[in-house]
Specification:
The protein has 372 residues and is α/β, with parallel strands linked by helices. The chain has helices spanning 22-33, 74-97, 108-116, 141-151, 213-225, 241-250, 265-274, 289-296, 309-312, 326-336, 340-354, 359-370, and strands at 2-6, 11-14, 17-21, 37-42, 44-45, 53-55, 62-65, 100-105, 124-129, 159-164, 174-177, 199-204, 230-235, 257-259, 277-280, 300-304, 320-322. The strands form three sheets. The protein has a seven-stranded parallel beta sheet with strand order 7-4-1-8-9-10-11, with helices on one face. Strands 14-13-12-15-16-17 form a six-stranded parallel beta sheet, sandwiched between helices. Helix 2 crosses helix 3, helix 5 (213-225) crosses helix 10 and helix 8 (289-296) crosses helix 11. It is globular and about 65 Å long.
Length: 372
């Protein structure tokens, strides 16, 4: 089988080797197992641009290099128009080569792939929609168009669409899916931390506006003002880093709130094993890996009610759904911290749920998609 992956996610070329964002590269290894040949239609970067990358460890048959673009300026808009024609040509050409077409959505390249796959009704296809599938969510029009095409049984044939969470009014082609970080063989007991103080919170992710890291910092600072012993460790880089650093300095919080930057997988895992809570007040998400990984190692999540997060947290029974009302969230956290036994039970429920979703289960699900 000739498998084609169409994605906005870039490859990074260094010498004669290709790299990709670490979790993406790890997932691609599994897809590649079930193909005789594998090709990619994607951008190629010369620099990693701050991404945590891993080497592509399997042979690549072909790479159809499409152009990155945005529409933030008039010049960029004109350039994007030209690039779009070029990209559509390459995507169509790559689809002619493939036996199985795998789209990664949402994104500019995913949008083009959604439209062009219409011309290949007899080829088997899958699409992984890695964003918020909630049809009621406010999203850019390009995202809504992609979801509409993928759901449309007249335009889209022979397609299985993998989405995060279970949603009403879904057709048989829309399949609830998940992502995973660990194999079952990596599961081990975690230390009981619930009688230990201070309370320890971890944030893992890009320090950008979408993840709202400043809200986490301000929330922990406010909780400390209420006399509750609590610390925060942030892992990641991003545009909000300078602002957060300034706030920590101005409020004299450097003893309690620490920025660690990007760290290896092993460091993050150890931090989650020792944390009481993992916090991710995102504006938008698909399947938030930071939340799932925290739950996997027994850290109770605090997260916003976006995408499938309420389903992951069982509507608040496996964690705290943040309201983004600082006073209200602070009061609820104070109340939770008064009962260590209840927190211990909640952490156990979170861990048991998350540990269903291993890389072993993920690989089995992909095998069923590729070899039904």
């Amino acid at each position: 089988m000739k498998l084609l992956v169409i994605s906005s996610a870039p490859f990074i070329k260094k010498d004669n080797d290709y790299f990709a964002y670490g979790p993406y590269a790890k997932e691609l290894v599994i897809w590649a197992k079930y193909a005789d040949e594998i090709a990619f239609t994607c951008p190629i970067w010369k620099q990693d641009n701050g991404l945590l990358i891993s080497k592509i460890s399997f042979p690549l048959t072909k790479i159809y290099e499409v152009k990155d673009f945005n529409v933030k300026t008039v010049k960029n808009t004109l350039q994007a128009l030209l690039y779009s024609f070029f990209n559509c040509y390459l995507i169509f050409k790559s689809m002619l080569w493939a036996d199985h077409i795998h789209l990664r959505c949402p994104g500019n390249i995913g949008l083009m792939g959604c439209m062009l796959q219409i011309f290949f009704p007899h080829k088997t296809k899958t699409a992984k929609y890695a964003g918020n599938w909630d049809l009621k969510a406010k999203q850019p029009i390009s995202y809504r168009v992609q979801k509409w095409i993928l759901r449309n049984t007249f335009l889209t044939k022979n397609m299985q669409v993998l989405v995060y969470g279970e949603w009403e009014n879904s057709t048989k082609r829309i399949k609830p899916f998940f992502t995973a970080s660990y194999y079952a063989s990596e599961i081990h007991p975690v230390p009981d931390r619930w009688d230990r103080r201070p309370w320890h919170v971890v944030f893992v992710g890009t320090l950008g506006a979408n993840k709202r890291p400043m809200y986490v910092v301000q929330l922990v600072a406010k909780i400390r003002q209420q006399g509750i012993p609590i610390t925060l460790a942030l892992y990641g880089h991003g545009a909000e880093q300078a602002r957060i650093t300034q706030f920590i300095q101005e409020q004299h919080l450097s003893e309690w709130i620490v920025l660690h930057g990007n760290q290896p997988r092993e460091v993050i895992q150890q931090a989650l094993c020792e944390a009481h809570f993992v916090c991710l007040p995102s504006q938008s998400e698909g399947w938030p890996k930071a939340v799932a990984e925290g739950m996997f190692w027994g850290a109770i999540p605090w997260a916003t009610s976006v995408s499938c997060v309420p389903q992951m947290l069982d509507e608040g029974r496996r964690g705290l759904l943040l309201t983004l009302d600082m006073d209200r969230d602070c009061a609820r956290i104070q109340q939770l911290c008064n009962d260590s036994n209840a927190l211990r039970q909640q952490a156990q429920q979170a861990m048991e749920w998350s540990r269903q979703y291993t890389l072993d289960a993920f690989e089995l699900a992909i095998r069923k998609l590729m070899q039904p």
